[in-house]
Amino acid sequence: MFPYPSGKLHLGHLRVYTIADVVARYHALQGRSVLLPMGWDAFGLPAENAAFERGIDPAEWTAENIARMKEQLQMMNANFDWTREVATYDPEFYKHTQRIFLLLLKHGLVSRKKATVNWDPVEKTVLANEQVDADGRSWRSGAVVEQRELEQWFLHITEFKESLLRDLTELTKDNAWPERVLSMQKNWLGKSHGAYYKFPTRSTDSRGAGSKSEGESLEIFTTRPETIFAAQFLAISPNSQLAEDLAKEDQGLRDFLSRAKALAHSSTEGYRIPSLSAISPLSLMKNVPDDRFERLPVYVAPYVRGDYETAAVMGVPAHDARDFAFWKRHHPEAPIKYAIGKSKDDPSLRDDSPMVLPGCMTSLAGEFQGGFSDDVAKKIVAQIENETQLGRGIVKWKIRDWLISRQRYWGTPIPIVHCDTCGPQPVPEDQLPVKLPRVTHHWANGRTGNPLEAAVDWVNTTCPKCHGPAKRDTDTMDTFMDSSWYYMRFPDPRNPDLPISEEAARRHLPVDIYIGGVEHAILHLLYARFVYKTIMGLLYPSPTSGAQEVAQSGVSDRKTLATLSREEPFKRLITQGMVHGKTYTDPDSGRFLKPEEIDFSDSSSPKVAESGKRTGVSYEKMSKSKHNGVDPGSFISKYGADATRAHILFQAPVGDVLNWDEDKITGVTRWIRRVHQLVRTLAPAEESLDWNATQHFTKRADSEAAGQRAMDADVWRTTQNTIVSVTRSMENVYTLNTAVSDLMNLTNVLIKHTRASKTLKVAATAHLLRMLAPIAPAVAEEFWSMLYPSRGSIFEQHDNNNGKTWPAQDDTLPLLRLETVKCAVQVNGRLRCVVEIPPRPADVADGPDFQAWITEEILKSAEARQKLASGAFDIRWAKKVFPIKNGKVRMPRLPPSLIWRAHRISPHLAALLPACRDLASARNELRWIREHVFSSSSTSSSTTTTTTQKGNSSSNVQQQQQTQEESGVVARLCRRRGRGVPLQYVLGSQPFGPLNIRCRPGVLIPRPETEAWVVRLAGMLSGSDVTKRRSDSSGGSEGGGSLRVVDFCSGTGCVALSLFALLQRQRRDVNRLRVYGFDVEPRAVALGRLNLAMNARRGFLKPPLEEEKSVAFERADVFSSDWLSFLRSYYDDNEDEGGSTPGSRRERQIDVLVSNPPYISAAGFAHDTGRSVRNHEPRLALVPDAARFRIDDCDCAPEDVYYARLLRIAEDARPGVVALEVGDLAQAMRVVEMALKLKGRSWESVEIWRDWPDMLPDEGEEGAVVVGGVRVPVIGSGSGRVVLLRSPDGEGD
Question: GO CC terms on record (predicted)?
Answer without folding.
Answer: mitochondrion
